[in-house]
Queue: 4 jobs
Job 1
Amino acid sequence: MKRIFLIVLDSFGIGAMPDSEQYGDFQVNTLGSVSGSAHFHVPNLERMGLFAIDGVKEAGLRGSASSHTAVVARMAEASRGKDTTIGHWEIAGLRSERPLPTYPEGFPEEVLAPFKEATGREVLCNRPYSGTEVIQRYGAEHLRTGALIVYTSADSVFQIAAHEEKVPVEQLYEYCLIARRILQGKHGVGRVIARPFLGTEGNFTRTSRRHDFSILPPGITMLDQLSGSGRDVIAVGKIKDIFAGKGITEAVYTGGNEEGIGRTLEYMERDFEGLCFVNLVDYDMLYGHRRDVDGYARALSYFDRRLPEIVERLKPEDILMLTADHGCDPAYTATTDHTREYTPFLMAGPGIPPRNLGTRSSFADIGATVLDYFGIRPEFAGESMLSDGYRN
């Protein structure tokens, strides 16, 4: 019974792409930044081959590149963009020729007017803002007036924050669905995000009932092809939201990396044929955007400590893949945005020989590799990274 466990370490970039300056990113390197922290300790990733990947040792990072136990590669993003949605879509085989729309000056009235009319509520903020800071700045006014806090970021997102005692969460979700219907075509943002919070003035905190409403992927992905062939496609974390549920047969949401790892281990004890696609979001959400180098390093070190539990549970026909969807260099202070970077690829499994595949031209090679293992020809551009003898 063939299974693949594909784990995305959200935002774990390993060095600037050649075109990074076009995205406003100069000399960025997420791995380079966190490796300088005293809290960075990843011996298991090192043994797999993290430091053997193209460009990693050249950046002066400590760690051995002399031998490794996994297939390793440096992944270049072919799509135009550096956000979560486009990165995951490309991993699944869907390249985006144009970046999803962003709104550095806030959303235009042609978006807000129908939204306010449909919800019957006014809007506060309407600017790029930190999610933790925006509720402190506008939370009291929201409670007083009932107006919704609408904000964005450098990502292609329309975020709605509301106090759970003022706007019940299910109603907030309905407002997000209204926004999702409006935000199509040229205003088709990647995600509409519900951001509920609780607390009192000066002490507002976001709750765990965030929910993402993603735009539907505009083409065929490996998820569609796998589920269409009768295989299981299990989504852990925010994967279901990123793909708007398309091509997914089962899903579970998680409250952070620890739960995401725990859920992955649970699925490893189950019998299924297909893919378990996991997103571990804390690196990006809690540490990258907040420019917390030590926090990011601790989170990577925590994953590294748990990695042997995952590897030990691999069955004879299982494959483990580790990668990322973009960078978010926590030491880059010019912005708090994602950073345009290469991402790592590590692939291991019982009997899979270690190799260094250099630099790949697209994240889509991951999707092609997944399909190749199940004997499925990809309906998208991508080259498998499997060696002979590991195909169906």
Note: The domain at 109-214 is CATH 3.30.70.1250 (Alpha-Beta Plaits).
Job 2
Amino acid sequence: MNGIVVINKECGYTSHDVVAVLRGVLGIKKIGHTGTLDPDACGVLPVCAGFATKVCESLMMQTKEYVATGRLGIVTDTQDIHGTVLATKEFHVSEEEFRAAVSRFVGTIEQLTPMFSARKIDGVKLVDLARRGVTIERSKKTVNVYSIDVLSFDEAGGEYKIRVRCQKGTYIRTICNDIGEALGCGSCMTSLVRTATGKFTLEHSVTIDELRTLRDQGRLSEALIPIDAMYRGCRPVELKVEYLKYIANGNYLEEDWLTPAAEPLKGFEYVYENLLGDREAACVRVYVDGEFFAIYRKKGHRYVPLQMYHEVDNEKNRVRKQESGE
């Protein structure tokens, strides 16, 4: 099985838990997720199976969108409501003042990585140190926050809801904490939902239980996004069957071995986002008898492999398989 499943992660699961469960549901070992979600957070978690794991890194770099709720007047060690309360403070904040504080965290900003995080320093996770009561110095990191929309604000209760669009690695609970610091009254995040990763949204996601039901009904394919859907911007071409051995070995392809192909993808326009940047215009999706094999890039009068999405039969892979016992 090769493709992407967009999971609507429920609270209580770690991202690694989801991967472990899906290995059983999908019956495949080679699975990877595309961006960690804390156990107490829920929402969009694209999971790649089989050869689709080759696009994991690209999908991780896509813009993330979150809807978070928070509360003024509370400071915790984890920066969310699930941590130990360090302080409670009175607040008298108008909506105008709140919106002004929020606007300070849009753009290129500096964030201090929270101690309760999976970041490693000298090979040790910060969260493991934090659980032992150890706090160490951390350097700030630069992140890009593209927008923050204030969806609601309750002046009396200090509760708020914001929608954040940002780059990979941005801590939303740190934004909530820092908003509180800017207002002088403290703040913590009370809930978090990732609503989108790139073009993957909640609308097209499934829960683990829903995926199990599809499996039991023999309908798993309905939840599977094919790998080639991620490359809709690349022109589809068909490789003449007599040249199959060349692509099977991961070799170059001559231009006259390829013929234009009708678009084989229907109904997956909603997930497409250019993953190749400026290279996309020179790349093609290569099919053999309608089966997607690889992305090739034009170089002179030939096409050279950019990414292979089948088992390449060459000496390097044969040695690897022999050594690993596959």
Note: The mean pLDDT is 91.
Job 3
Amino acid sequence: MGLREQVNTALKQAMRDKDAARLATLRLINAAIKDQDIARRGADGDTDLTDADILAILGKMTKQRQESVRAYEEGGRLDLAEREQREIEVISEFLPRQLEDDEVAAAIDTAIAQTDASSIRDMGKVMGWLKERHTGQMDFGAVGPMVKQKLG
């Protein structure tokens, strides 16, 4: 079952359970996926989102909420921060398990070997290889400097 079907199944279950908070978050996920469908339809005619595309959407949604949690906590709005945190938990159900630090390091080493990267100029190839295989499993904002350090 693809990610889109998993989200729809969870949405129906949340309706049956009358879980309003979960239902609202699942509807936000569905809306983000449909927005991307519409954007694709106008752009190049290819409307089918892959699971990797949906993972990218979910990752972006998670990152946005993490930034909101930080802002709300700094502003003393703990109630809003908790709501955002609950949304992160629901979204995270559909994301793959995050890799541990040693697994990320091993994936970077593998990517460097597979792409025959030898200098910082090859960083794009390495990052592309990692994104192809590990979307949603690692924070690419943190991985970039690690790759740069190994290539530099």
Note: The radius of gyration is 18 Å.
Job 4
Amino acid sequence: MAVPRKKVSHMKTRSRRAHDALAAPTYIEDKDSGERRRPHHIDLKTGKYNGRQILEPKADV
């Protein structure tokens, strides 16, 4: 049975785990309203996606 000769160093372990961090969600500024929204998602306030009206805009309450 194969057995490692010595334990893995801290540098090797930390280098391997460097890609495991969670990325913060990205937001972009909407061209029309100027508000922040997720890319490739419908703007729920205006109901637009990619310059086209997809949903009815929300009524301000």
Note: Residues 25-56 form one domain.
